[in-house]
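Methods: holo model generation. Sequences were used as deposited, without trimming of termini or removal of tags, and paired with ligand SMILES retrieved from the corresponding compound records. Each pair was processed once, and we did not select among multiple samples. The sequence and pyridoxal-5'-phosphate SMILES for this entry were:
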Amino acid sequence: MSDPLLRYRDEFPILATSTYLVSNSLGAMPRTVPERLAEYAQQWATLGVRAWAQGWWEMPVSVGDEIAPLIGAGAGEVAMVPNVSVGQAQVLSALDYGGGRDTIVMTALDFPSVRYVYDELAARLGARIVVVPSDDGVGVSEERLIEAIDERTRLVAISHVTWTTGRVLPVGQIAALCREKGVPLLVDGAQSVGAIPVNVPVLGCDFYTVSGQKWLLGPDATGALYVRPDLVEKLAVHFPSGYGLASHDAGAPIAFAPGADRFDPGAVPLPALRGLLAALSFAAESGEERFDRARSMAARCRELLAERHEVLTEPDQATLVSFKPHGDPEQAVARLTERGVVVRGFPGLDWIRASVGFWTSEDELDRLLAALPG
Ligand SMILES: Cc1ncc(COP(=O)(O)O)c(C=O)c1O
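and the model returned the structure below.
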């Protein structure tokens, strides 16, 4: 327990009973979350709809403003959405696929539910999806991705960190090329924000989606969408909600809010946003050192796993490590779970992932190794 960041372990109740290596799906709950959820219940119970006037109605904006600094964005530039896939759908539906610019370039390593939004929604909207393949399931060739961007490209949509192996894509380089070609770039940051440093304006992204429930340690249903401020008013909103309106005058034409919150699709889970606020305090308190520690522990995890297993994650990537367990992966996950080590596989795939955070201890890595079959 020599590293000062390990003091945060006490903040996560589950770490007392489990080796929890699964932030790629759902982060460990901070112990301060229940009181924030109880506050919500208390206000609802006592104030009912009057609670809307006690900051409830503004919460999607105020929580977006708390996420903004974590990605280098400013106030009013981040809308809260229920999940990443909805955030992506908001962007896709706001674009126009006419005038000879009808393709969306993405990669075979984007997340399945995100791919679905493209294949189904974007295709219905008239977009042609160009998927850059992965030869090895680990990475995509950046050269091929860049070659796929041409005069027909309406949007490039990629993951910052691939969900499969934690590979970090050279987003800054891709953004520069997109800018040169006049193509907007949408980046899925579900596996990056909270795991590695992210500065969206410096990278040059036009749109960026965030998951609150993974590396930011918030509850389910806490996604966010960054929209470059000068694009906001140029884009049509096709899934509006009461939360994204500038005015609620029933007699007037619909008027959208001036900031990114016009993309708020409504039904934002207010209890979950409160839980997320509790979780965001770690990012503020623990400083940038947390990224260095998570990275060095991930490198250690990779090294230990590689002694006995095939590791798919390349060195120096983000903080999830994919590897092939000996034998059936589902049985390996069940065996780990029985031994108190929480990781997840993915149906149909023969590898599993271990997520390593700034709170991960050496003991936990040893427990993972000891619990694996073979
Ligand atoms: C890279 C990536 N994108 C998107 C998602 C899906 O996010 P959501 O369920 O919030 O739409 C995941 C989920 O694990 C993911 O890893």
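The chain has a mean pLDDT of 94.
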